[in-house]
Amino acid sequence: MNETTLSGTPTAPVTGAVADPFVVDGVRLGSRLIMGTGGAPSLDGLGAALVASGTELTTVAMRRYSPAETGSLFQLLEDHRIRVLPNTAGCFTAKDAVLTAELAREALETDWVKLEVIADEHTLLPDAVELVDATEQLVARGFKVFAYTNDDPVLALRLENLGATAVMPLGAPIGTGLGILNPHNIELIVSRASVPVVLDAGIGTASDAALAMELGCDAVLLATAVTRAQNPLLMGEAFKHAVIAGRLAKKAGRIPRREHALASSAMDGRAEFL
Amino acid sequence: MNIRLNGSEQSVADGASVSTLVSQLTGRSIGPDGRAADGRKLGVAVARNAEVVPRSQWHATALADGDDVELVTAVQGG
Asked: Which residues contact A186 (CB under 8 A, 6 or more apart)?
């Protein structure tokens, strides 16, 4: 039906994908890809890309209501039965983030929130002090906090101890597409976390998402890499497979890295040519 | 009377409730429980003077002259 999607080609069900749901706050999600909706030029295109990506959880921002745009994004997600994860994007203080989260809970009837408290518009990096403060306040108010954080293993553990439902370290600054700049830190965060770890921000292309999963992340969150790709539909589908591939590779257990070559064909029994 | 709605001056009827205002702006009929009469979700929230007004209180909350009201909804975002 569509020339640009590969979905039409018959493929065997991917082993483990169905039996391996992403469980967060007791909710089972069939996909380990969380999509952002920012940056898409049109809602139609966005909807198609979201469907192609297979995502079951998608972030939205809270902004002033404009009669011209009457809740169409909200309706789009409802229509596709995609769960919403409201964010606090654009908040610079814990105070603003808490109020924004309260508004989101009222508007969207979910106590899940992607907590984003940024330091400045140039880096868009999380402000650790405000982030910790906001996490504490939101947990006390009964929110399920998905904390967008720096790739700092110490901070990630603090957020978990404060009651965060998931920690979401960045791979690189938002929108840069630089990939995972500090894989070691991500591995360290994963190794110490007992809540889900979601690699959030900085993803540029499918292999970055596969790497995140291979490092042990439970899920990947991205927006720009799909919405601003030249073909968002294809890229959405690419990410769907990348996340599954990375997850399977992690579960399968990779071979150790070696200094020298190791023949995969036996040397014994070779024919001899005189 | 006048209020500030999403940063702009807006004239509303004296004694209008939050529910009336939301109904006018969204063009949806809203029940006393703060839910749309058509049964579909509204997807909006209201803050009055920097405090959230729960939808269950929209009907009972009268606006006052000079109130600062924010009406928000979900939009595209990372």
From this structure: A151, A169, A171, A180, A197, A199, A212, A215, A216, A217
A112-115 vs A83-86, strand pairing mode: unpaired
CA distance B25 to chain A (A): 7
* Cross-chain Cβ contact A60/B6 below 8 Å: no
CA distance A265 to chain B (A): 48
ipTM of the complex: 0.91
Q: Are strands B8-11 and A144-149 parallel, antiparallel or unpaired?
A: unpaired
Q: What angle do CA A164, A162, B55 make, to 5 degrees?
A: 60
Q: Is A264 an 8 Å CB contact of chain B?
A: no
Q: Is A219 a residue whose pLDDT tops 90?
A: yes
With beta carbons less than 8 A apart as the criterion, state whether B41 and A74 touch: yes
pLDDT tens digits along A98-136: 999 999 999 999 999 999 999 999 999 999 999 999 999
- On the question of pLDDT at A8 being above 50, the answer is no
Known catalytic membership, residue A114: yes
Q: Report CA dihedral (A168, A225, A29, A165) to the nearest 10 degrees.
A: 10
Q: Rounded to 10 degrees, what is the CA torsion of B32, B37, B43, B44? A: -40
Closest residue by Cα to residue B47 from B7, B12, B10: B7
Q: Give yes or no for A44 touching B (CB within 8 A).
A: no
If one compares A198 and A81, the residue with the highest pLDDT of the two is A198
Tokens 């042990």 — which residue?
A: A216
CB nearest B73 (choices: A37, A87, A107): A107
